[in-house]
Specification:
By secondary structure, the protein is an alpha+beta fold. It has two domains: 145 residues, Beta-Lactamase, CATH 3.30.450.40; 104 residues, Beta-Lactamase (2-Layer Sandwich). It contains nine helices and nine strands. A four-stranded antiparallel sheet has the order 1-4-3-2, with helices on both faces. The protein has a three-stranded antiparallel sheet with strand order 6-5-8. It is rod-shaped, with a radius of gyration of 29 Å. The termini are far apart. The C terminus is likely disordered.
Length: 260
């Protein structure tokens, strides 16, 4: 005999990938109200139980049903009849702009009348689910942006150097390696001036960096000559705790021309 609990476990595996902390909130939802189980049903999930979540989203408000089999909306699903789902509580998951993401659903193998306290508890857990979904989405977007950034750095024919407002190098792409002779590992953590600016021009370079940090003008073109490695050893790393970055590009058609 197919049990409701085992089917829910299978659905958790077969639906779209999701972090374990979100599914644990669904488990918690089932436990706090003493139901058979709980699940998160997102709009882009797959699986037969997701139709229940879509019904909740369609109503646009919490859906608490004493007997799902006798309900005009839920009772029409073969899944409800086959798994003998009776008690059902669904809370819509809405983002900050009110757009539906899915639903938090709690199911029970017996009919039950849901209390106001139980609805309030489930609503609080649903809010926590929305928060976690937002955090995971933010992490995903940050990862995608980082991958795109690395692809640009790796493929660019221009020298791209990223430094903070103290002139400490935080990124150094392959074109910069070829142009100036320092590897990425050698350059990161060092002052840009120590790597590519001739000694007699470094004071002017440092003044330019200070002016950029003070005024927000982060791209100041200088007329000084760039200084390739030419056998020099790597300067000592001077990693900074500051997080503000300034991008520096050097045009390959004029390797000796630096931009701050």
């Amino acid at each position: 005999m197919i049990s409701l609990e085992s089917t829910l476990q299978e659905q958790a595996v077969s639906t779209s990938p999701r972090a374990g902390d979100i599914d644990r909130l669904a488990t918690l939802a089932g436990r706090v109200v003493g139901a058979t189980s709980g699940l998160i049903s997102l709009l882009d999930d797959e699986g037969e139980l997701t139709v229940l979540g879509r019904d909740v989203v369609a109503t646009g408000e919490p859906l608490l049903v004493e007997d799902a089999g006798a309900h005009p909306l839920l009772g029409r699903h073969e899944t409800v009849r086959r798994l003998e789902i009776r008690g059902f509580a669904g809370i819509p998951l809405l983002d900050d702009e009110g757009r539906p993401l899915g639903a938090l659903c709690v199911v029970d193998a017996r009919p039950r009348a849901w209390t106001n306290d139980e609805e309030e508890l489930l609503t609080e857990i649903a809010a926590a689910v929305v928060t976690r979904l937002g955090l995971h989405r933010a992490v995903e977007l940050a990862r995608e942006a980082a991958e795109e950034r690395q692809a640009v750095l790796a493929s660019s024919l221009d020298c791209i150097v990223v430094m903070d407002d103290e002139g400490i190098v935080h990124e150094w792409n392959p074109a910069a390696e070829v142009t100036f002779g320092w590897t990425r590992e050698e350059a990161i953590g060092c002052r840009l001036g120590d790597l590519i600016v001739p000694e007699e021009q470094r004071q002017r370079h440092e003044e330019g960096i200070a002016r950029a940090a003070r005024t927000g003008e982060s791209r100041i073109i200088g007329n000084g000559s760039g200084c390739p490695r030419s056998g020099r050893t790597a300067p000592r790393s001077r990693r900074s705790s500051r997080s503000r970055d300034t991008s520096v590009e050097d045009e390959p058609s004029s390797p000796a021309r630096s931009a701050i």
